[in-house]
C-alpha cells in the first residue's frame, strides 16, 4: 500500500505545485528555509520513488496478493493454476496454536532485546562523555567492531565461544559438556546476548554523537543559571536528544522484532522442535521448508501489521506529548 | 569535591575499559582461532593465545575456488549501493525535512513502514520480478550483480532516508538563509552548503547501506544462480557442515568477511561522531 500512496502523491505533484511552508499553517515552530521556495520538493523525492515503487512497492503488493492465493510448490512450477482462496491462509495461521505461542515468544524476546540494547547503549554513551581519551577510543573501537561484525559471522563466533565441547565459556565456567542451546530459555538468552552485542553500538554511537552536538554554550548557560548536573541532563540534554531517542527506539523495535540470522544460525533454524522460533523464521520455514509460499506470505503480512501497530502506538504517544514527526 | 570527581572519573575509565574488552573479545577470539593450528582449536583446554600461529586456515578459506572473485563481487555491489543510496537518500531527506507539503507525513511514515516489512518474505515476489526484468535488461536479471545492486539499494533506502532526515534537520537553517541572501542559487545551497554539512550524517548512513549490501545472504542466494556472480556470504556457507564444523575455516572466513566492514567503519567513524558536533555548533 505504500506504493500506491507514493504514486498518488507523484500524480498530484505534477499538476498542482506544492505549497511552500509559508502557505501551510505552520505545524511546528520551525521556520521555512530558503529552499522552501522551490515550488516542488517532488524532484528531490523522484529518484527514491523510481527505485522504491518497482523494487519495493510492487513486490510488497505481490506479497499481499500471494497471501490470498493458494500457492505452493505445484503452483510455483506452473503445473497447477493458482487459486484465489480469500482469507483462508490467514484463518489457517490464526487458528494454529503454534502461531500464537511463536508470536508470544517473539514479542517477549524482542521486548527484552530492545530494553537491554537501549539501556546498555545509553549507559555506554553517557560513559563515553565522562572518560579520558584512551578509554573512550578503546570502547568506541570495541563497539565499532561488534557493530561491523556481520550478523552471520557474529553468530558463528558466539556459537564457537559457547560450543559444548571446545567452547571457551564452558572452559572458564568449568561446565564442559553443557549445551547452552539445549534449554529453550537458555538458548533465547544466548541469542539475546548476541543481538544486544550487535546492536548496542548503534544506540551508543548515535546518542554519543547527539550529546556531542549539543552546543557548549547551551550547557554553559544552564550552568550559569545554577542548574545542577541532574537538572541539565533532564531539562536540557534529554529534550535535545529526543529526536535521536525516537530514532533509536523505533529502530531497535523494528530490528529486534525481525531478528532472523542470529536465531536461524545459532539455533539451527528455530531450535529443538521449533522451541526457539520467532515469527520471521517461522514464516521462512513455512514458505521455504514446507513450500507453502502463500502461508509464509500471510505470516509476513501479519508481521508487518503487528510491527505497524506497535510503532503506531509509540508514535501516537510521542505526538500526544507534543513531538513532531 | 575535587577528589570525588577524580575517583568517579577513574571508576568510569575502568568501567569503559572493561566494557571495551568484553565487547571486542569475541572478535579477538575469532582472529585468534583463525590463526591457531588445527590441533589447538579442538583441544580440551582452549587457551587465549597461541605460540604457533599459522595461515593454514586462511589458505584453506582462500583456496575455495573463486573466493577472491566473490570478495570482489561483494565489494562492487556494496560500493555501488553505498554511493547511489547516499545520493538518492540525501535528496529525499532534504525534501522531507526542509519542506512542508501535503502527504509529507504520509511519505515519512511510508519510509518507516517499509522498514517493517520482513525482507525474507519478499524474496519470492522479487525472484519473479528480477526474472522478468532479465528478459528486457539482462544486466539486471537473474545471476547479475546489477540485480543485487538494485535490490539492496531498494532495501537500504528507507532506513537511509529516515536516518538522514534527522541529520539534515540538525543543520541550522540560518546558514541557508545567509547563503540565499548572498544570492546563492538553490542548487548551490543544496550542493555547496547543505551537502558538506550533512556529510557526517551521510557517512553514518552509508555504514548501514554498506552493511545491508555486504551482509545480504538471502537475496544473493535466491537471485544469483551461477557461481561466477556469487557474493561472500554465500561462499562462506561452504564451511558450514551439519555434522562437523571446521571452526578454524569458519573463523578464518569470518575474519576475512569482517575486515572490510571494520575498515569502512574506522574510516567513517570520525565523521560519524565528531563531524556532526563540530559542524552544527553555533
Automatic annotation (TrEMBL), chain A:
The keyword tRNA-binding does not apply. It holds the Pfam family BPD_transp_1. Residues 103-314 form the ABC transmembrane type-1 domain. One of its GO terms (biological process) is transmembrane transport. Residues 1-30 are annotated as: Disordered. The keyword Transmembrane helix applies. It is found in: Cell membrane. One of its GO terms (cellular component) is plasma membrane. CDD domains: TM_PBP2. Keywords: Cell membrane, Membrane, Sugar transport, Transmembrane, Transmembrane helix, Transport. It is a multi-pass membrane protein. The chain crosses the membrane at residues 40-61, 107-128, 137-161, 187-211, 232-255, 261-283, 295-315. InterPro entries: MetI-like, MetI-like_sf, UgpAE/MalFG_permease. Belongs to the binding-protein-dependent transport system permease family. This is Sugar transporter.
TrEMBL record, chain B:
GO terms for cellular component: plasma membrane. It is found in: Cell membrane. Residues 71-268 form the ABC transmembrane type-1 domain. InterPro entries: BP-dep_ABC_trans_perm (IPR050901), MetI-like (IPR000515), MetI-like_sf (IPR035906). Its main location: membrane. GO terms for biological process: transmembrane transport. Keywords: Cell membrane, Membrane, Transmembrane, Transmembrane helix, Transport. The chain crosses the membrane at residues 12-31, 70-96, 108-130, 142-168, 189-211, 247-268. It holds the Pfam family BPD_transp_1. It is a multi-pass membrane protein. Belongs to the binding-protein-dependent transport system permease family. This is Sugar ABC transporter permease.
Amino acid at each position: 500500500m505504500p506504493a500506491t500512496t507514493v504514486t498518488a502523491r507523484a500524480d498530484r505533484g505534477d499538476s498542482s505545485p506544492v505549497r511552500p511552508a509559508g502557505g501551510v499553517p505552520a505545524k511546528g515552530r520551525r521556520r521555512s528555509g530558503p529552499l522552501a521556495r522551490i515550488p516542488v520538493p517532488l524532484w528531490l523525492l523522484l529518484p527514491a520513488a523510481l527505485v522504491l515503487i518497482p523494487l519495493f512497492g510492487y513486490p510488497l503488493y505481490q506479497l499481499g496478493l500471494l497471501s490470498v492465493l493458494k500457492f505452493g510448490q505445484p503452483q510455483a512450477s506452473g503445473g497447477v493454476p493458482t487459486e484465489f482462496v480469500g482469507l483462508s491462509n490467514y484463518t489457517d495461521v490464526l487458528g494454529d496454536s503454534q502461531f500464537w505461542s511463536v508470536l508470544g515468544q517473539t514479542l517477549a524476546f524482542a521486548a527484552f532485546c530492545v530494553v537491554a540494547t537501549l539501556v546498555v547503549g545509553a549507559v555506554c554513551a553517557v560513559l563515553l562523555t565522562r572518560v579520558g581519551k584512551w578509554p573512550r577510543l578503546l570502547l568506541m573501537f570495541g563497539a565499532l567492531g561488534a557493530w561491523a561484525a556481520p550478523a552471520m559471522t557474529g553468530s558463528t563466533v558466539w556459537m564457537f565461544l559457547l560450543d559444548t565441547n571446545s567452547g571457551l565459556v564452558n572452559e572458564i565456567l568449568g561446565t564442559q559438556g553443557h549445551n547452552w542451546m539445549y534449554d529453550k530459555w537458555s538458548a533465547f538468552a544466548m541469542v539475546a546476548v548476541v543481538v544486544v552485542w550487535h546492536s548496542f553500538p548503534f544506540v551508543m554511537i548515535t546518542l554519543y554523537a547527539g550529546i556531542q552536538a549539543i552546543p557548549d554554550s547551551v550547557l554553559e548557560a544552564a550552568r550559569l543559571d545554577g542548574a545542577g548536573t541532574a537538572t541539565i541532563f533532564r531539562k536540557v540534554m534529554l529534550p535535545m536528544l529526543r529526536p535521536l531517542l525516537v530514532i533509536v527506539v523505533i529502530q531497535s523495535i523494528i530490528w529486534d522484532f525481525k531478528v532472523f540470522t542470529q536465531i536461524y544460525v545459532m539455533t539451527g533454524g528455530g531450535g529443538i522442535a521449533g522451541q526457539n522460533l520467532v515469527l520471521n523464521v517461522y514464516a521462512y520455514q513455512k514458505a521455504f521448508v514446507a513450500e507453502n509460499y502463500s502461508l509464509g506470505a500471510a505470516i509476513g503480512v501479519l508481521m508487518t501489521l503487528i510491527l505497524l501497530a506497535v510503532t503506531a502506538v509509540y508514535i501516537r504517544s510521542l505526538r500526544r506529548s507534543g513531538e513532531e514527526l | 569535591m575535587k577528589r570525588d570527581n577524580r575517583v568517579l572519573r577513574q571508576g568510569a575509565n575502568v568501567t569503559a575499559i572493561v566494557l571495551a574488552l568484553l565487547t571486542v573479545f569475541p572478535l579477538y577470539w575469532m582472529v585468534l582461532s583463525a590463526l591457531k593450528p588445527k590441533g589447538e582449536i579442538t583441544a580440551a583446554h582452549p587457551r587465549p593465545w597461541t605460540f604457533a600461529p599459522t595461515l593454514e586456515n586462511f589458505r584453506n578459506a582462500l583456496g575455495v575456488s573463486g573466493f577472491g572473485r566473490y570478495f570482489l563481487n561483494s565489494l562492487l555491489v556494496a560500493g555501488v549501493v553505498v554511493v547511489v543510496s547516499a545520493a538518492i537518500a540525501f535528496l529525499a531527506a532534504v525534501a522531507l525535512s526542509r519542506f512542508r507539503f501535503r502527504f509529507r507525513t504520509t511519505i515519512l511514515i511510508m519510509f518507516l513502514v517499509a522498514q517493517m516489512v520482513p525482507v525474507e518474505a519478499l524474496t519470492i515476489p522479487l525472484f519473479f520480478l528480477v526474472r522478468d526484468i532479465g528478459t528486457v535488461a539482462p544486466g539486471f536479471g537473474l545471476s547479475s550483480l546489477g540485480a543485487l545492486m538494485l535490490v539492496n539499494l531498494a532495501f537500504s533506502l528507507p532506513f537511509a532516508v529516515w536516518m538522514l532526515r534527522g541529520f539534515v534537520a540538525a543543520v541550522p537553517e540560518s546558514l541557508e538563509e545567509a547563503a540565499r541572501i548572498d544570492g546563492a542559487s538553490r542548487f548551490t545551497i543544496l550542493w555547496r552548503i547543505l551537502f558538506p554539512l550533512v556529510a557526517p550524517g551521510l557517512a553514518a548512513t552509508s555504514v548501514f547501506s554498506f552493511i545491508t549490501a555486504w551482509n545480504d545472504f538471502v537475496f544473493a542466494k535466491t537471485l544469483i544462480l551461477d557461481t561466477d556472480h556469487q557474493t561472500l556470504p554465500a561462499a562462506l556457507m561452504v564451511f558450514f557442515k551439519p555434522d562437523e564444523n571446521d571452526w578454524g575455516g569458519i573463523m578464518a572466513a569470518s575474519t576475512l568477511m569482517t575486515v572490510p566492514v571494520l575498515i569502512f567503519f574506522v574510516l567513517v567513524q570520525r565523521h560519524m561522531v565528531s563531524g556532526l558536533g563540530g559542524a552544527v555548533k553555533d
